[in-house]
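Exercise 7.
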Amino acid sequence: DLGHFGRKPIVLAWLAIVFPCLLLNYAGQGAFVLAKNGVVGHPFFEMNEGWALIPMVILATAATVIASQAVISGAFSLTRQAVQLNMLPRLEILHTSEKQSGQIYMPRVNMLLALVVMLLVVGFGASSRLASAYGISVTGNMLVTTVLLFVVMTRIWKWQLWVAVSLTALFAFIDVGFFASNIVKVFEGGWASLAVAFAIILGMWTWVRGSRYLFDKTRRNEIPLDFLAANLSKKKPQLVSGTAVFLTGDPLSAPTALMHSLKHYKVLHEKNVILSVVTAPQPVVPDSERVKMETVNDLFMRVTLTFGYMEQPNIPRALAICRKQGWKFDIMTTSFFLSRRSLKASPNSGMPIWQDRLFIGLAKTAADATEYFQIPTGRVVEIGTQVAI
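Solution. The predicted structure, written as tokens, is:
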């Protein structure tokens, strides 16, 4: 939740409150354990015996609820960013605030979290048995964060390599020690953390790999847009009034929906827009950089909409910006054409058959593009195609 207030409040809260309290808490528990010669069950509660015990139990319970809520909010935010970066299929996103775009609810992620939590509770039975899984999760997170810090220092901050390596080595020396001491507890419950991590990585890898194969296969069967536009300009089919917007991931090729529309309807709109949606490697994109327009000829135009990875794409609202650049966009005279693919597994896809089926399963869970891009349903025409991957 602090993320809504920016970087400064997070830094101040960490340095002034969280970090000093953590040091006092852990140093105090460590001193208590040493004073008891290591014979301690639950140091946090045992060192608060007497009048302070009940308040500390209440405080710990409240902290657990807050922490679990933070995990849920973090899972929603990270999942949305993964979807925006095309590392996961589109998932339903519900906005719970009219003022804060970051306050979202994702039903499928929430359900998945609930199922995993119930499986862990039933499977382990007691929180003490989860200690090994918790240790691997925390130390693994520390190690991965160190690796990501090295990437940020070298690629984004442009630090000198020796400085980045020195700092990374310092943190990694500590993190590897903690992680190595916990990884030996894999068979005592640590496997649960590794299994969850493996499942997420497998899902992302399958989606990215399958999407790449699907893109390459469909592109081989498509016609270059410039070639098609030039031919249609010379020999125009029957033109109908209005504007047609064709959504595509490849603005250089004629969209499948356009080709099927010409094949079956034998007509073309007076104005045809080939629309691509791009996710920028930054959280928010200003309106001045939102739209890029390019005229192909008198019949066709390319439009690229750019959204930050933390923004929810809203195509009609973004297209309204085009009015400032000369295209008088009117939602009531515009039809949006989408291609809905029906995927079939193929032994020649380049992926194992089990990964084909997993990719198809993930694709079926994807949210409807009309809802995801917030296009009015009454202005959408969907054209189905079957693709073997």
